Amino acid sequence: MAVDYLVIVVYLVGMLAMGWWGMRRAKSKSEFLVAGRRLGPAMYSGTMAAIVLGGASTIGGVGLGYQYGLSGAWMVFTIGLGLLALSIFFSARIARLKVYTVSEMLDLRYGGRAGVISGVVMWAYTLMLAVTSTIAYATIFDVLFDVNRTFAIVLGGSIVVAYSTLGGMWSITLTDMVQFVVKTIGVLLLLLPIAVVKAGGFSEMRAQLPTEYFDPLGIGGETIFTYVLIYTFGMLIGQDIWQRVFTARSDRTARWGGTVAGTYCLAYAVAGAVIGTAAKVLYPDLANADDAFATVVKDELPMGVRGLVLAAALAAVMSTSSGALIACATVANNDIWSRLRGAVRPSGEQHDEVKGNRAFILLMGLAVIGTAIALNDVVQALTVAYNLLVGGLLVPILGGLLWKRGTAQGALAAVAVGGLAVVALMAGYGILANEPIFYGLLASLAAYVVVSLATRPTDEAVLAAWRERVAGRAPASESVSEPASAAQ
């Protein structure tokens, strides 16, 4: 394993070096939180694909393929569909808003009264997303170094916190590009063909496995519908995703770069399911389906290649973890702390704001590592996070973008009713049940429409300012001064 260890160590040192280099570029709030809003198509596509394809998409996607066959691709496939929908229909408008958080968008649309409560819901989601990604280090480092769970979480989490704190979004963007390349080579170009060949090819896989393993809908229509509600809609409204949209240098970059990233996700989904199906042929009696990825890597890949593919898994986890961490810190600082203490946001970009945001990333990073050590059930924690996000925020966000008659009172009612309904239904039906998200969304939609129609329409001056912002005609105080050269 010496060569494999060397590959991993070089990769981890490279991540820290990227963080140090990114620190030299992050000199303002805009540079630190959204990479100066100047990423070109190549970097934007790579970093967007990296953030959405994490440990759940890689290790979990292979596990679903092991359990259900080709239909196990649906979870990651719906993530790709959500990214495509966001990019094609909404990303241009989102990029033109020139804000930092989803809650700031709600304030602009509804007149400044939706920020804190939506910020708390978004903060809980991003925190748990970062926690679940951080826990995945334990699995990977256990395969690599045979270390205990706590040490693995501290080691992986500390590296992510270090480079994220140093350079903010610039460091995360640079590391994400490396991670995107490593994932592409490790999973798509190496592990996929090797696993299929080791399993005897597709003809042998068909001969060895039941026919339902090759049924595109074998996982079940209700499960697919639930994935769409949670993951496709979750991609439309998550702070971690929107913060990447804010990095695009133009609405065209956001639209087409995101479309490329979404298409890549669809291919990644199919690859994971095929690898899992091949693993079922090679190891038909694994006790845990999520062990399929590590087992194939450990037993079937040659020296050196094994290290690169494990680095790919590490890259998948780190990209999601770092993206969720900076999103969590941005929401905590800008949407919760600044509002609760009554701070007045400066009108221009202030260089000294970098220090405050850097401190929040460090603070949230320590909280994420501590929570990851204490938490055991990752699937339930992530389900709670996504249920709260979609049940509480989907309706007011999409309603604000699509329905002029929606009001601040309607938005607040939708957040409160949807969030409380999801929590109550999870307590009644169980956290992993489908009913909480189904009925929670319906309750949120009903509250939004009824309360909006029962209250006075949003002030026309607020709507006029909103239309100006969506059209890209932002006030001078909100515009970001861009250098002549843009990142490619």
General description of the model:
By secondary structure, the protein is mainly alpha-helical. The protein has two domains: 1-337 and 355-374, Sodium/glucose cotransporter; 377-472, no CATH class. It is built from 19 helices and no strands. Helix 3 (41-52) packs across helix 14 (305-340), helix 7 packs antiparallel against helix 16 and helix 12 (251-282) packs across helix 13 (292-300). It is globular.
Q: Top keywords for this entry?
A:
single chain, 488 residues, mainly alpha, Sodium/glucose cotransporter, 2 domains, 19 helices, disordered C terminus
CATH class wording of the largest domain: Mainly Alpha
* CATH structural architecture of the largest domain: Up-down Bundle
Order of helices and strands: HHHHHHHHHHHHHHHHHHH
CATH topology descriptor of the largest domain: Sodium/glucose cotransporter
Q: Which percent range describes the beta-strand content? A: under 5%
Shape: globular
Number of domains: 2
Write the CATH homologous superfamily of the largest domain.
Sodium/glucose cotransporter
Rg is 22 Å
Say what oligomer this is: single chain
Low-confidence stretches: 344-351, 476-488
Question: What class do helices, strands and sheet pairing give?
Answer: mainly alpha
Q: Helical stretch count?
A: 19
- Give average pLDDT, whole number: 86
Number of strands: 0
Portion of residues in helices? over 70%
Largest pleated sheet? none
The end-to-end distance, rounded to whole angstroms, is 37 Å
Protein name: Sodium:solute symporter
Organism: Streptomyces viridosporus (strain ATCC 14672 / DSM 40746 / JCM 4963 / KCTC 9882 / NRRL B-12104 / FH 1290) (Streptomyces ghanaensis)
Family: Belongs to the sodium:solute symporter (SSF) (TC 2.A.21) family.
Keywords: Membrane, Transmembrane, Transmembrane helix, Transport
